[in-house]
Design a protein that fits this description.
Layout lengths: L9 E2 L5 E3 L6 H8 L4 H4 L8 H16 L3 E7 L5 E8 L7 E8 L8 H17 L3 E6 L4 H10 L2 E12 L2 E11 L4
Parallel strand pairs: 5-6
Antiparallel strand pairs: 1-2, 2-3, 3-4, 4-5, 6-8, 7-8
Helix pairs in contact: 4-5
Protein name: N-acetyltransferase
Pfam families: Acetyltransf_3
GO molecular function: protein N-terminal-serine acetyltransferase activity; protein-N-terminal-alanine acetyltransferase activity
């Protein structure tokens, strides 16, 4: 049996840090579950219950155990967990991995997503040597695609009816960042 992935603690810019999920992060899961959008595109439970919150955190641990990805909690400079950024490895055999991120409403607009994304990208390129990083963003979500672009991702195109979001299929912009910086 292969060893589980080791989700490291990473320093990010502007005093943010990234770390593995803990049971003490149930408040973050609760706030994320109250968002209109986060539960539609993630496995964050809605509505929240303590049992569902615990199951969510355990799923994050399971991603490392099954070697499918690195889930990180984004922690603000004041020590509060404010979001999630994940590096997902299902296409590593093809030389690519995907990223996803979310920040709870109370913490938006402070640079958490961008600094977290930049930290994971740098770490993935240095330590894991992944040739191609990808992410997908709905066209209406300008805050998210601007974050990706600030970190250096390039929009490659519109993937029509690419992802199930809630009860419908949605278009997604596809972004990539190559190991040679293009």
């Amino acid at each position: 049996m292969k060893q589980p992935l080791d989700v490291p603690e990473l320093a990010a810019g502007e005093g943010f840090t990234l770390r593995p999920w803990r049971m003490s992060d149930l408040g973050l899961v609760r706030e994320a579950s109250e968002d209109d959008y986060i539960p539609l595109i993630t496995t964050v439970p809605a509505p929240f219950s303590e049992a569902e919150g615990v199951a969510f955190v355990e799923r994050q641990w399971g991603r490392a155990t099954t070697r499918t990805g690195y889930p990180f909690v984004i922690v603000s400079p004041d020590g509060e967990p404010v979001g999630n950024v994940g590096l997902w490895l299902k296409d590593m055999g093809q030389g690519r991995a995907s990223l996803g991120y979310w920040v709870v409403k109370s913490a938006r607009g402070r640079g958490a997503a961008g600094t977290a994304l930049e930290a994971v990208v740098g770490w993935a390129r240095r330590e894991l040597c992944i040739p191609r990083l990808e992410l997908y963003v709905e066209p209406w979500n300008s805050a998210s695609w601007r974050t990706a672009e600030r970190v250096g991702f390039q929009r490659e195109g519109l993937m029509r009816s690419w992802q199930q979001v809630g009860t419908e299929r949605r278009d997604m912009f596809m972004y990539s960042l190559l190991s040679d910086g293009q």
